[in-house]
């Protein structure tokens, strides 16, 4: 039996049909295009069965599949080890071309390299595209070609290039007739091995962002966009968001540039996944007290801003950005627990978990990363509370027992601050 000659578009972190670079070029292939998503067991096997992010991916794919049905096509869903899935696809189809958008995380780079070799051995041509960032890899570098490790000059160069290179939209709407005609079976969440979570990804909103710089630090105002999970999974085009931010608010645009800054740091310095960017900080003697870490995780430190943030995270998968800085600083400086512990906990809980940003921001808080907060900056959680939640609206939302006699702080701020500074001084290699 003759195998069908086809092209594939491999969905990964780009879960949308519109303004999708790789899909745009795939649909111009001379062969009908099978849209594919692989639930990668190398990632899934470490997740809890009610992981809300898997549920969100499944829900998003279901919507894409419904849209594809209108074209007489459907989404092919596979679960397994990525190489084995591709090997089976190569046996089932005459795979002429494979299109996908790049992923810059170390695991993804390694995985894609192996798939590229497998496809090449089977005479299949693969095409990789830039989609999840405006500028990638080596597009924003210093004059000598080296990567930036300080944000402000990176941002200035980014903006300079942005002004010179107008963003285009990749309109796929007129190309849907080139999808492979099919009615593949769409698996339930349970068939993939997961169950629905009570935690949900919120829709993003762009309302109110004109005043972003005035409202973003006040968690009780709930004035953030909730955009980050959607950028993480590619349910929205980053190009559209950047164009919107450029017209609306410079501070909001700056946050999107921070995202790309951390991505290029991870790309050029993959050691930051587990190690300090600044190796001079490797000698710090962390306390790493497990009972202290447990109290931090549960939101039972006795510091309202810290505890409210951790409880919000545990119950919703979200945490306000200002509060993230406070809780991260508290773990690393007040408790002297190394940033890797907190990074791993956030990776487990955050709906918008992004490896580069998570590692980058944790090292920023710990003082061990590139362009980080200086080690002697130790946030006072009580002052942060007075500045950013003066009426206690945010903390009362997440700490219902607050007015009934809230517990004492687990550590004295002045003592913890002095201890942290002394420990850092002693541990930094001169």
Structure description:
With 430 residues, this protein is α/β, with parallel strands linked by helices. The chain has three domains: 132 residues, 3-Layer(aba) Sandwich (Rossmann fold), CATH 3.40.50.620; 98 residues, Serine Threonine Protein Phosphatase 5, Tetratricopeptide repeat; 149 residues, Orthogonal Bundle (DNA Cyclobutane Dipyrimidine Photolyase, subunit A, domain 3), CATH 1.10.579. It is built from 19 helices and five strands. α13 packs across α14. The radius of gyration is 23 Å and the shape is globular. 40% of the residues are buried. The model has no long low-confidence stretch (mean pLDDT 96).
Q: Give the low-pLDDT segments.
A: none
Number of helices: 19
The largest sheet is: 5 strands, parallel
Q: Any idea what the shape is?
A: globular
- According to CATH, the fold-level topology of the largest domain is DNA Cyclobutane Dipyrimidine Photolyase, subunit A, domain 3
First-last Cα distance: 70 Å
The portion of residues forming beta strands comes to: 5-15%
Average per-residue pLDDT, rounded, comes to: 96
For the biggest β-sheet, the strand order reads: 3-2-1-4-5
Number of strands: 5
Pfam family, one: DNA_photolyase
Protein name: Deoxyribodipyrimidine photolyase
Cofactor: FAD; (6R)-5,10-methylene-5,6,7,8-tetrahydrofolate
Domain Photolyase/cryptochrome alpha/beta: 5-134
